[in-house]
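hey so i finally got around to running both of the ones u sent me last week. sorry it took forever, my laptop kept dying halfway thru and i had to restart like 3 times lol. anyway pasting them below in the order u listed, first the sequence line then the structure token line for each. didnt double check formatting much so if smth looks off just lmk and ill redo it

first one:
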Amino acid sequence: MSTPKDSAHDLAAAILPLVGGPANVTSVAHCMTRLRLTLTDPSRADEPSLCALPGVLGVITAGAAWQVVLGPGVVARVTTAFEHLMETGRLAARGAVVREERGRRNATPFKSALRRLAAVFVPLIPALIGCGILAGLGGLLVNAGLLPGLTPALAAVASAFMALIPVFVGVNTAKEFGGTPVLGGAVAAIVVFPGVAKVTAFGVQLSPGQGGVLGALAAALLATRVERWCRGRVPDALDVLLTPAVTVLVAGLGTLYGIMYAAGAVSAAIGTAANWLLATTGAAAGLVLGGLFLPLVMLGLHQALIPIHTTLIDQQGYTVLLPVLAMAGAGQVGAAVAVYVRLRHDTSVGTSLSTSLSTSLSTSLRTTIRSALPAGLLGVGEPLIYGVSLPLGRPFLTACAGGAAGGAFIGFFAMLGDRVGATAIGPSGWALFPLLAGNRGLGVTAAIYAGGLLTGYTVGFAATYAFGGVRAAATAAAATGGVPCDPTPSRSS
């Protein structure tokens, strides 16, 4: 019987030749669900064959940047195995040069900025999730009056990372932009150092944490620029002494007397804007945000929202945007269930095709939905997006309608003063319940979020059942060879 490690190695070994082999891959990374590759020559990759691999949930291409959707948990094991295969096959010295050249030719400034933002913040998500769950557990214990001796320890464990998150942002920023990670972290640490309370900038006394993650990001960027400037001018014999000292001094003073003040104003504006948006135009804002989030996920652009979520969590303790955006997954679940019911009961599907072809496609889609639905309920939407709604076409739009309805539901209560937030980013769907927080207590917050999910499920189902065109879409898919990607997990994984 194969182990998860063995199956991950097998899947990585199957993916590597289909993306052109080791010589065609210049960078390897992963996020929560996707293996992210940069290819030297995208034409050498075989997208249809890659898409057909058992265990591959979908493939997203944007020039040299390819994303192979594998799902949570699996992607980390496959990436490790893939990197091992790359190391044994080749890469290393030439990879960085090729990546930089291809990035300049193929990446737009916007895509490049999103990629770099993701590289800074995505590695922080596991810690955000873990600490967020512990914070929620601690809050439950406090409210219930249970284990009073344990709750202070839980609070310390859950809060320590958030208190120092600017340091981690600084380390990742310097690493991504070509600086020394520890110098980026050292300058970013100024943002949270208690001693900044003794410093006055622009006539205002600074406070620890002012500017948050945005200030840390800007501080580390400045440190990287100063360090690179020094490297080209300081004599080699003095580099080890002068470069770190000048970097920390110049970037540190710039952080104290400029960045913290400016980033603090921007962070405050983000928090004010998010609260105002939902409190004033909550239903309309929720309608738009919930309805448009699935296309953002499909394109991988949702990573651009991570700094905003992180800023809100750092500033207010939770992000009010994530529960609204999570409604897109609810609409997707409702749409998938409607497709399943339609295919099960509508015996006229595929009447213009052979009975065996029609039956085969119907069975394949229903199997895909059964396999992907549990992940969808837990907020992992890619299997349903790439395996069901997107290939069928119109059900993707009706799923967006369900997300819009769920977002409007939560936005409506925000207008009434009931804010629903999440203490961490990453999970959605049912998995978000342990991370919920708000201004009306956990019971009210959970009830509103549950109502949004039910609204998204219901509208997504009803819209797809009535207007999804499942029969016509399934017939067209059967005529052209079926659904392009099979998101059914490999039986060996």
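and the second one:
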Amino acid sequence: MFFNSIAFAVFLPIVFFLYWFVFNKSKSTQNTLLIVASYYFYSCWDWRFLFLLVFSTFLDYYTGIQIEKGKSEKSRKFWFWLSISVNLGFLGIFKYYNFFASSFADLLDVLGFKASPILLNVILPVGISFYTFHGLSYVIDIYYKRIKAEYNFIDYSLFVSYFPLLVAGPIERATHLLPQVKVKREFNLEKAKEGISQIIWGLFKKVVIADNCAMYANNIFENYTSMDSFSLVLGTVYFAFQIYGDFSGYSDIALGVSKLFGIDLLKNFNYPYFSRDIAEFWRRWHISLSSWFRDYLYIPLGGSKGGLSMKIRNTFVIFVVSGFWHGASWTYIFWGLINAVYFLPSLLLKRNQKYLQEITVSWHISSLKTIVNILITFGITCFAWIFFRSESLSMAFDYIRRITDFSFNRSSLKEQLSFIIIIILPYLILLEWNNRNKECPLFGQLSRIKIVTTIIFILLFGEFNIQSKFIYFQF
């Protein structure tokens, strides 16, 4: 069930009505309804993987309690590593087994040995990377005594399977979400209005920005050998806005839907394409994942407190693992490596915390520098997206080589530019830039005008004739 589908447009009002008018007697009835709705929502993808979700939920619930109750460190470690091993084992089998098997076979082939790896013919369970990380953070926090174990199975199950964030995040923390599901929610009209506004903005970014840009980006990348250099650059920019509109649009819808039920989710995007350097970009892009790797991998490895070699090692580890999290492909790993190279100078020069303040622009020479920094950061980010989008490393390098040919074909350019793109991208950029200090551009002054205008854009330019999947469903 997609957020941009008719099925969800029917599903959401029904759950909303039952939640506030039928099952509103207590916290338990509210949570039970949301769990049933979440399991139904997930089973619409493939009901067979619902059992994997339930098993993962029970595993972390039970091991969390055993870790807390453990009378010896040996016992606590046993349950801790059992949970970690099983969770990562499932993730490895479904997501990474074929990659490692094929890569090992390729290595043997280079060494002169023939190998026929046994590959698994299974589909990737949707959302497995997200709900696995929910459970991992919960168990890790209990083991290090940062939180107490949750003994109410209904409450914990909702924390893991809450349908707005189930298949593509944000990656929630028990410290943030569990306290909210452990109390009865009361209807808040202002929060509901904010939720509807955020849903509208998320739909705009998905069906107008992402899906329109996707048509041109897909055409260019799939036929890149026949494209001129300028068209290839356009293809990269189109993909940059496609993946931003697609993923941040999903996050906006998730946050908006959750507000309808009186629950706040973690903010996952903070206008990342307005970043002034790559360190700021990673504080603004997929915030829940970046902070997860920072807290559960980077800091435990020593962070940036050690010597030069440790700082470099930890930087590359965090970005390579982040790339690998996105998919079992060398293109994602290389994308992670590129971002590590981008990030390293800021870390070594101790400038990675430079841009913590909000962006301000005025008629001053410093503002020109700010704009230039934003454009440079966007440019190098687009360059890295080439590897993320390409089907192989060889394709990515060939794509880049063809850009450097500096060829230009006027007729090809006309085919890759459209009236719709020329209209919708400036609207997105201007609205986000003028409202960059707000959680959602449709909040604040002139909200009604902005909402009505955005709805008109959705009706005029939205791609409703295709049921487009969200990109991050595959991760």
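quick thing i noticed on the 2nd:
The mean pLDDT is 90.
anyway thats it, ttyl
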